[in-house]
Amino acid sequence: MDKKSLKTFKPMWELKQAAQSDTLELYIYGDVQGDYFDFATWAMAESETSANHFRNELAKYPNAQTINLYVNSFGGSVFEGTAIYSQLKRHKAQKIGYVDGFACSIATIPLMACDKVIMPKNTMMMIHNMWNVVAGNATQLRKAADDLDVIMIGNRQAYLMKSNGKLAEKKLIQMLDAETWLTADQCIEYGLADELLDKEVDLSKAQRLLQKANLSIDQQIEFNKSLAAQLREMAKQPLASGPTPTPQENKNMKLLASLLK
């Protein structure tokens, strides 16, 4: 990603205080991600989509009475999204969730922390089992699969608690295994949403977002592998030309290389 792209990157979470001092509005538009290496500043940066950043922002308004959460996202980091869910669950405010397009994968989980979820009739949710990219020997690969099974037990509880008995765990497991798309009507039926709006929303942008994610995921994986290899190699040797890197720049390079191993 070049410097121009970094400067124009729009985070998933946007937190702002509404006209009423007791109401907060949050937007989940895009992917969930943790802290990252910022090539523009050549240093580690706090992601505005991370649970850490969200915690800091939410703490600024401890007396908020209402939180409006708007979602249009294909998902992202399970660890970040689950932590955000827990933060919302603990907050004393009334939480109202709105699906503005697609709420997919881990992006559905923060909605499960809401007291009420509202969906226009043409919006959708998608739920599935979490997945991970792993490497190692046979024992390590089996352990990774076992770990995912354990994590999914906790992940399912968010849906089951929100459904309030409308969705049996056996049925939920089948839906997760099948990577299931749910219409707004189905979300109401299963208790994952509470109110249906007759008014439709414009899904053109949401569809392009999802299509882009689906088409580019393999390319992103290959790019990340290549970038990691190059950075590890760069960290082993001094620059061939140009100014001598500062001790902090060397430290940042080694840190980035270790993160990409």
Task: Give an overview of the whole structure.
Strands 1, 2, 5, 6, 7, 8, 9 and 10 form an eight-stranded mixed β-sheet that branches. α2 packs parallel to α3 (78-90) and α8 crosses α9 (247-259). The relative contact order is 0.11. The protein has one domain (3-201): Alpha-Beta Complex (2-enoyl-CoA Hydratase, Chain A, domain 1). It has nine helices and ten strands. The longest helix is centred in the last third of the chain and has 33 residues, at 204-236. The protein is of the alpha/beta class and 261 residues long.
Record the SSE blueprint.
Blueprint: H1 3-8, E1 13-17, E2 23-32, E3 36-38, E4 43-45, H2 51-58, E5 66-76, H3 78-90, E6 94-104, H4 109-112, E7 116-120, E8 124-127, H5 138-163, H6 169-177, E9 180-183, H7 184-190, E10 195-197, H8 204-236, H9 247-259
Parallel strand pairs: 2-5, 5-6, 6-7, 6-8, 7-10
Antiparallel strand pairs: 1-2, 3-4, 8-9
Helix pairs in contact: 2-3, 8-9
Number of domains: 1
Largest sheet: 8 strands, mixed
Radius of gyration: 20 Å
Number of strands: 10
Protein traits:
alpha/beta, two-stranded antiparallel ribbon, 2-enoyl-CoA Hydratase, Chain A, domain 1, eight-stranded mixed sheet, 261 residues, globular, 46% helix, 10 strands
